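Q: Got a minute? One more chain.
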Amino acid sequence: MTVKALLFDFDGTLLNTNDLIIQTFMHVLNERFPGQYSPKDCLKFLGPSLKQTFTDIAPGEEESMIAKYREYNELHHDELVTQYPDVVSTLEQLKAMGIKLAIVSTKRNGMIDRGLSVLDASHLFDIRIGTDDVKNVKPDPEPVLLALERLDVNKEDAIMIGDNSHDIEAGHKAGIRAAGVAWAFKGEEYLQQFKPEYMLHHMTDLFEIVKEG
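A: Always. Here it is, folded:
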């Protein structure tokens, strides 16, 4: 096997959006359910789609809660996100090596683009797959399979990389290898339960993985 393409989740993998996401959930939930949720409670909301999360929390109110979430999230995005070490420089080197790069996210495309602008990394990705592109989001394999199709890459030549169980599961369901990231907010031990083929402790670990194929 060779590695011709790397598919990345975005939030919590390429850009540290954890504080943004948790603060946004706390803002929305405290308004609707005062005092019932803590930041720790919001950890389980990292990964699933907003529709799934708010449907579980308040069936029938999900659309209004999603709207409030997006309003706050967009307003505070740039002030609450931070960069992980060596993400952009690693992506630049991988791109120079001829590796195809993709984003496969449960975010809307416009917010992926906004995050990429913070990283100044839009030019590094061949494609990006967001919720606007698919009917079913991760852990369904649809977005991963769509990325492979658009990249024109075989399953054995691609790896899905992310900070959540949904990323690993989507990769495996699509028939490709998966890598977790040890800087995940939920932690390395949590991700190991889902048996990723690789665990990145630093973004630069990708060079060895690509080299080994």
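A: The chain has a mean pLDDT of 97.
Q: Perfect, thanks.
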